[in-house]
Amino acid sequence: MEDLRTRIARTIRREREAAALSVSELARRAGVSKATVSQLESGQVGPSVETLWALGVALGVPFADLVDQQPNAPTLIRAEDRARVPSSAAAYSATLLSATPPGARRDIYLIQAEPGDARRSDPHHPGTIEHVILSAGQALVGPADAPVLLNPGDYLTYPGDEPHVFDATTPGTSAVLISELR
Question: Per the record's keyword annotation, is Lipid biosynthesis included, yes or no (predicted)?
Answer without folding.
Answer: no
